[in-house]
Structure formats: structure tokens, C-alpha cells
């Protein structure tokens, strides 16, 4: 129940890498939500944002394919659909970037606090155990974050040529222009395939991290 309530609150309260986010985290802790719970929820949000972006970009590519393979009908309407899909993909890409920043913000706070608390132990044995757990958690986190960032960094190279082609088509909606950019579809298609693979790996790493965090909380 705690996780459900926390997840809902994270969807409705805006987050940022600023003093506002620090204040938000402090408020959540006063309400009984630990930083590790907030981190787990934000990782879920980042994972879901990547899944959404992956699907939106694939849909945009499909629409691009329909435009360059135009065989009659309302070309203007087809172009508008492509432009709309591209704008949605742009929004999804920005959401991915923002969610990853949110993850980093609370993770930095969690690990900083954890490291400071190590000096408060009077028991050397408990300190070693806590240090070992911190090291293990940070290692899993870095692996997951690395996968997320690698996937996120592939988004712009995919969107950039799509953005250029959509802009070009805006004033060149004719068969000659479509034939001229048809070769670009093959290049972008290969980039999207790699992006999807990276995103799937990132999503899998996020799931592993979430499961490990929840297992430790049980």
C-alpha cells in the first residue's frame, strides 16, 4: 500500500534538480517515505518513460515510412500525422531526460546520507556490513544508470534526421521530394533498431534494480 500511495504522489508532484526537489524529498521523509522508496519509484517512472519513448519513436518511423512510400491520397493529411507523431516523440524524449535527472537527484541524496551515517556506528561489524551493502547498491545503481543514459543519448541522433526531413517536407510535399528522402528511411530505420535494443536493455536493468531494492525492503 505504501508503494502504491508513493507512486501516485510522484506522478502528481512536479520534481526538479533544485532546492525544490530537496524540500520535496524532505517533506516525503517526514511523511514516512524513505529515500530508497522515492528512488525506487523514480526508477519506475524513468523506465516507463523510456518504454513510452521507444513506442512513440517506432510509431513516428512507421508514419515516416508511409509518407515516403506515398502512392496517392491526401498527402497533406499524411504529413500532418507524421509531424504530430514527431512532436509526441520529442515530448517523450524530454520526459526520459527529466526522469533520469530525477533519479540522479534522489540517488545522490540517498548515497550521501548513507555515507555520512557510516561514521555514526559504534559497532565496527555493523559499519562493515552497511558499507558492503552501500557498495553493492551503488554498483547496481551505476550499472542501471549507465544503461539508461546510453539509451537516452541515442534518442537525439534518431530524432535529428527525422526532424530535418519533416521540416523539409513542410514546403516540398511532392513526389520528387519524397523520392529524394526515401534513402534516409533506411538509415533511420537502422538507428531506431539500435535504439530499441538499448532501451530494452535499459528497461531490463531498471527492473533488476527495482526488484533488488524491493527485496531489501521486505
- End-to-end Cα distance, whole Å, is 13 Å
Proportion of residues in helical segments: over 70%
How many β strands by DSSP? 0
Q: Low-confidence segments, ≥5 residues, pLDDT <50? A: 1-17
Reported for the largest beta sheet, the result is: none
Strand coverage percent: under 5%
The helix/strand order is: HHHHHHH
Shape: elongated
Return the average pLDDT rounded to an integer. 87
Number of domains: 1
Number of helices: 7
* Radius of gyration based on Cα positions: 22 Å
Structural class: mainly alpha
3D architecture notes:
There is one protein chain. With 218 residues, the chain is mostly helical. It has one domain (2-217). The chain is 87% helix and 0% strand. The chain is built from seven helices and no strands. α1 crosses α3 and α3 (35-68) packs antiparallel against α7 (175-217).
Short description:
By secondary structure, the protein is mainly alpha-helical. The chain is built from seven helices and no strands.
Amino acid at each position: 500500500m505504501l508503494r502504491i500511495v508513493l507512486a501516485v504522489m510522484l506522478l502528481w508532484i512536479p520534481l526538479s534538480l533544485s532546492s525544490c526537489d530537496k524540500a520535496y524529498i524532505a517533506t516525503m521523509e517526514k511523511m514516512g517515505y524513505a529515500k530508497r522508496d522515492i528512488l525506487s519509484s523514480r526508477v519506475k517512472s524513468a523506465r516507463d518513460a523510456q518504454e513510452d519513448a521507444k513506442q512513440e519513436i517506432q510509431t513516428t518511423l512507421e508514419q515516416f515510412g508511409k509518407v515516403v512510400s506515398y502512392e496517392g491520397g491526401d498527402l497533406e493529411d499524411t504529413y500532418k500525422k507524421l509531424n504530430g507523431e514527431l512532436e509526441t516523440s520529442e515530448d517523450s524524449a524530454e520526459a526520459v531526460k527529466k526522469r533520469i535527472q530525477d533519479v540522479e537527484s534522489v540517488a545522490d541524496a540517498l548515497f550521501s546520507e548513507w555515507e555520512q551515517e557510516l561514521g555514526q556506528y559504534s559497532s565496527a561489524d555493523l559499519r562493515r556490513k552497511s558499507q558492503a551493502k552501500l557498495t553493492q547498491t551503488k554498483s547496481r545503481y551505476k550499472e542501471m544508470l549507465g544503461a539508461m543514459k546510453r539509451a537516452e543519448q541515442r534518442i537525439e541522433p534518431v530524432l535529428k534526421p527525422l526532424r530535418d526531413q519533416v521540416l523539409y517536407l513542410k514546403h516540398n510535399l511532392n513526389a520528387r521530394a519524397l523520392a529524394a528522402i526515401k534513402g534516409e528511411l533506411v538509415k533511420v530505420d537502422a538507428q531506431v533498431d539500435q535504439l530499441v535494443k538499448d532501451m530494452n536493455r535499459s528497461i531490463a536493468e531498471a527492473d533488476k534494480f527495482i526488484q533488488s531494492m524491493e527485496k531489501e525492503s521486505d
